[in-house]
Amino acid sequence: MAAATHQTVLKGAPATGLSSLIDVAKARFLRYRIYRQTVNELSVLSNRELADLGLHRSMIRRMAMQAAEDYVAS
After folding, report:
1. Residue 63 lies in a domain
2. Domain that holds residue 36
3. Distance, CA of 50 to CA of 60 (rounded, Å)
4. Nearest to 38 by CA among 56, 64, 74, 70
5. CA distance 31 to 53
6. Stated pTM of the model
7. Would you say residue 53 lies in a domain?
8. Which of 25, 37, 54, 57 is the most exposed place for a label (fewest CB within 10 A)?
9. How many domains does the chain have?
10. CA 56 vs CA 22, 29, 42, 62, 71: distances in Å
11. For residue 71, with 0-12 CB atoms within 10 Å meaning exposed, 13-18 middle and 19 or more buried, which class applies?
12. Angstrom distance (rounded) from CA 34 to CA 31
């Protein structure tokens, strides 16, 4: 007879209850909203304005992802 010796939990999704699942979904949605807002705000800037901030247009998505992660983590 086979028996499971350990459980696997998905990253960011606790295995305890529906309320925890809802909390994870809320956090992911908030992270996505912050990401989209940051991308939209940085995308309207000119290349010169981005350069003044020390950014290149190719860095926008990475910076937005970092901003969203930092916002949700705090």
Report:
1. yes
2. 17-73
3. 9
4. 64
5. 23
6. 0.70
7. yes
8. 54
9. 1
10. 36, 27, 10, 11, 22
11. middle
12. 5
* Residue 1 forms part of a structural domain: no
Tell me whether residue 49 is exposed, middle or buried, using C-beta atoms within 10 angstroms of its C-beta: 0 to 12, 13 to 18, 19 or more. Answer: exposed
CB-based contacts of 16: which residues, under 8 Å, 6+ apart?
none
Q: Which amino acid is at 65?
A: M
Give residue-wise pLDDT tens across range 4-49: 565 555 555 555 678 888 988 999 999 999 999 999 999 999 999 9
Q: Which residue has the tokens 């809802």?
A: 22
In a domain, 51, yes or no: yes
Cβ neighbour number for residue 68 with a 10 Å cutoff? 20
Cα separation, 47 vs 49, whole angstroms: 5
